[in-house]
Design a protein that fits this description.
By secondary structure, the protein is α/β, with parallel strands linked by helices. It has three domains: 81 residues, Winged helix-like DNA-binding domain superfamily/Winged helix DNA-binding domain (Arc Repressor Mutant, subunit A), CATH 1.10.10; 72 residues, no CATH class; 102 residues, D-Maltodextrin-Binding Protein, domain 2 (3-Layer(aba) Sandwich). The chain is built from eleven helices and twelve strands. It has a five-stranded mixed β-sheet. Strands 9-8-10-7-11 form a five-stranded mixed β-sheet, sandwiched between helices. A hairpin with a 2-residue loop joins β1 and β2. The longest helix is centred in the N-terminal third of the chain and has 24 residues. The radius of gyration is 24 Å and the shape is elongated. InterPro entries: LysR-type_TF_proteobact-type, LysR_HTH_N, LysR_subst-bd, WH-like_DNA-bd_sf, WH_DNA-bd_sf. It comes from Rheinheimera mesophila. One of its GO terms (molecular function) is DNA-binding transcription factor activity. Pfam families: HTH_1, LysR_substrate.
Length: 292
Amino acid sequence: MLPPLKALQAFEATARLKSFSKAAEQLYVTQSAVSHQVKLLEDFIGQPLLLRQNKSVELTQYGDMLYSVVRDCFVRLNSVTQHLLNQPPVQLKILAQTSIAVEWLAPRLELFKQQHPELDTLLDMASMANNADPEQYDIILGTWPAPAGFVSRQLRTEFWYPVCAPAQFQLLTSADAAELLHYPLYSSETGEDWQLWCQHQQLRSPAAMQLRYVNLALLATKAVTAGSGFALSNDFIAGPALASGQLVALRQFSYQLPWGQYQLHYKTDSVQSTAVAHFIQWLTEQLQPASG
């Protein structure tokens, strides 16, 4: 005997989105309707499927077993239906600046796919704004100005701070920002980024800083992971290396780099407007500080 389809649909959406309200929005019904359908399914199965904790929703052991099967069935059913209707899946074309694409966005796209299995994404990357045609994309992420026909919003207030390898950090003998100037400084802005950093720290720049030049902030960050010196980085770029212990952040010396604020650019009149809205909502959630 199969469970009711509406109940399975409500359960799948709630489990995938971890929210009754978000499931209701996606299914175009009320939150109480979703909750009612999930309760019907739990009564049918005879076991609790979801743990309701304040605003969060978590799967029980039984819910996890059922969801793994239901989700796979829904994804396969959606794929077969699109094939029978001869309709290609909706594809969002995303252009991201190298600094945010490599370490931050690319590893998270599977999370977006899990929430929206009906949507495909094509992620492209560029180091400079003029390296790609913006008209080919639905969404653009970077520190670049908005292309014509796009509207913008700042992702968050981004702070830049010195990073270094643990071995380099152990060589520091004081909590004085000036001590960093005794070591190699990797710059992706011909030294201007470090000049501004010195101004913010109220330091007089030495006549000859030990500058090492690279083309991208990502390269500067990578360069210091295995050697001496410091680079100016941010959470988008250095986050994974900081989490793994490859890098140490000196956040007490952070500052806001004038050209280092990331923007989300998107077309309001895109034929993929619904998919764009889903991506923006997901991206906003990803940028929220982790609870606990």
